[in-house]
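Long-time lurker. I teach an intro course on protein structure, and each term I like to show students one example going from raw sequence to a predicted 3D structure in token notation. This year I'd like something fresh instead of my usual example. Would anyone be willing to generate the tokens for the chain below so I can use it in lecture? Attribution to the forum is fine with me.
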Amino acid sequence: MTLTYAIPDLHGRFDLLDLALSQILEHAGGQDARVVTLGDYVDRGPNSREVIELLMAWPFPSLRLVALKGNHEAMMWEACNNLVESEYWLANGGDATLASYGEFRAGDSIRSLIPERHLQWIGELPTIYADTHRVFVHAGVDPLVPLNQQREQTLLWKRYPKGFSSGHGRRHVVHGHHADERGPVVSKGKTNLDAMAWRTGRLVVGIFRDDTPGGSVEFLEACGKPHAE
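-- Reply from a regular --
Happy to contribute to a lecture. Here you go:
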């Protein structure tokens, strides 16, 4: 039996990521396992740079990392490549990301603060990961479209209607993006892990058995200080 641990939206909370990884290593007990991070590593919280650097370095040989892209990484990459107005990204939490990279002064290029290797890493992140029984994605999937034909806009930005409980065919969908302080929100077909960790200080990690269909068999919670508004 192998396990997959899913970590939702971090938004610069390096402290919670560090706690969660310690709990995962203890829970795995030295056995090989997979960690899927569901995107939104940057913006809003204080330590976006540190989150990215840890994921890029990934110093845990027994844990196989699958790092997915979130809509906030997409906004960051597009702003740094002049594909969207930088003000749009900054107004959606990008100001906190820039602060984690250093002092930003009026007239500076936002790209000048961010290492090229970070932007390259973000640009190459996959948007979806599927195994035999589950689909892991940042925001959601269209249940009527084959997985290999999903639009990136859907995978990064989708909002499920309230009460929607279906997965994708026989696969259970594991996602973040839908911030809910009461999370995790679990239904027969999908699990939303986003408990708004950057604000609440509560990061919920879902644990899934790779050989067993359906939702999480257990949750871990990494708890720290709520974000000071």
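Some talking points for your students: The helical segments are 14-28, 48-57, 71-80, 86-101, 116-123, 152-157, 197-200. The radius of gyration is 17 Å.
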